[in-house]
Amino acid sequence: MNRLSILQLLSYATTYRSQIWGAIANSILNTVFDLAPPYLIGVAIDVVVNEENSLIAQFGITSVTGQLAVLSLLTLLIWSLESLTEYLYSRLWQNLAQTLQHELRIDAYSHLQELELNYFEDRSTGMLLSVLNDDINQLERFLNFGAHNILHFLTTVLFVGTTFIALAPGVSWWAMVPIPFVIWGSMVFQSKLEPRYADVREKSGLISSRLANNLSGIATIKSFTAEAYERDRVTLESEAYRRSNGRAIALSAAFVPLIRILILVGFTTTLFLGGVAVANGNLSAGTYGFLVFIIQRLLWPFTDLSELMDEYQRAMASVRRVMGLLDIPISIPHGDRSLSVEIVQGEVKFEDITFAYNGRKPVLKDLSLQVPAGATIGIVGVTGSGKSTLVKLLLRFYEVQTGCILIDGIDIRDVNLFDLRRCIGWVSQDVFLFHGTVAENIRYGSFDATNEQVIHAAKLAEAHTFIEQLPQGYDTIVGERGQKLSGGQRQRLAIARAILKDPPVLILDEATSAVDNETEAAIQRSLTKITQNRTTIAIAHRLSTIRHADCIYVMDQGQIVEQGTHEELLTQTGVYAGLWRVQSGDYK
């Protein structure tokens, strides 16, 4: 599983292969230069003890002074190279970490935006935020430091181990006896840590989800005096996260003490057998001193193996979650056909549409409906009859199971998604405003619009008057989700945003549900201007909103059961006439 994760990461980072190899090379070279001082000390002892018979003397420098001068220059060079490679690997790894975390986050977020609404309905926002933030940041931390530390460990073991075997083969084998046991123990610990860290990431997502959900619903929590209840729920999630981390810590913390015991065996073996070899004349005192010193550089890094494995496991758990997100297939693909807003007439046709949400009974059943270009139609019906689902299918938030939807005679599945949605202005009953100014929210989606165009759209939506009364007018910050504004004000801004987009097809999904009667009347007056030269589909519970529509369709259980003008439907003793009597107060 970890091998798969690292391969996925390397495959993703193919563009930066040269930078990766550069960072790896400098990490290895830095480790080699870092290991040089013990070797230089051994050579210095050799010069002082053996003089003209030393290792350096074999290169033609016989005087002790000259040999020490060469050794000093070599020391200066190696230390300089160590500093240089440390700068290079640090810069390369950290730049790589910043670049990859940036691109992974952008790619993951962009991929999320391409997924259908069903995906978001089945998952919490906090869990997705955990992947986009916590997991990607965990990978960044690993690349900043962990990757170099692992390379430092591997290079040290390989370099020192090879030297040890070359200088004292008889002693080295005994000194290295603990290493296979250390590696085996590390693999065992790794296999047991992997599921524990996966559980830690899962619990982290859950606590993030809980906190994000509660902060979004803080007004509801306060209104129901549920602070203690929510605190207890957060406590449970946090306690589960703490326990999950505790299980991982309990295992990882036991690793170092066990490894120290094994390392002690190797060090003691070198100390004893090396001393015996010197006493028997089989090993020089200088080499013995060097080996006793260098064995620590070989074995003690194994005490860091637990921390290295800990960092690696956390990073790979995060990689799996991020790559798993990127691997989710896009179920609503873009069509190949472009559609220019300027040439769209706005004829919309639903042909034998059937649709059901996952695991539920059909919301729409063999429904057919044609909206002529430039016409204004109203759709009414009880809650759950499929009204809003119909327009979400038109926007391709969901894909129909059978049948097709046409715009100007073109199947919307063949149209580029961006082109399709540019042709449609949608005002939802669940208005979402972004944290920013009033003007920024009206201009959203029409980012090049002038201030004059923004104001004109606000006037058509009957929003200009209240906007001017705000503390900073159009520059007033609306707060997260527009919480500083009333429901009616938010809805009028949403209408203004759709008007500014100037689409050939306009969808008003309960667009006046949160406004008072006076504001509704004002919006009704502006609708005659708003709907000119565009196809309008108005979904409403308030029948007064759509009474002047060219045609009104009444839906019930996913099918159209009545249709006609307001006057025609009133003459029938059907669903619409009954709804009108209730809303008008005429119960006769």
What this model shows, in words?
It is a multi-pass membrane protein. The chain is an alpha/beta fold and 588 residues long. The chain folds into 2 domains: 16-326, Up-down Bundle (ABC transporter transmembrane region fold), CATH 1.20.1560.10; 343-584, 3-Layer(aba) Sandwich (Rossmann fold), CATH 3.40.50. Helix content is 62%, strand content 10%. It has helices at 2-12, 17-50, 64-114, 117-121, 125-167, 169-175, 178-216, 218-223, 227-253, 255-279, 285-299, 305-326, 387-394, 417-422, 438-442, 451-460, 464-468, 487-501, 517-530, 566-571, 575-584, and strands at 348-355, 364-371, 376-381, 402-407, 410-411, 424-427, 505-509, 535-539, 551-556, 559-564. Strands 6-7-8-3-9-10 form a 6-stranded mixed sheet, sandwiched between helices. A hairpin with a 2-residue loop joins strand 4 and strand 5 (410-411). Helix 2 runs antiparallel to helix 3 and helix 5 packs antiparallel against helix 11. The longest helix is centred in the N-terminal third of the chain and has 51 residues, at 64-114. The protein is elongated, with a radius of gyration of 36 Å. The chain starts with a helix and ends with a helix. The model has no long low-confidence stretch (mean pLDDT 82).
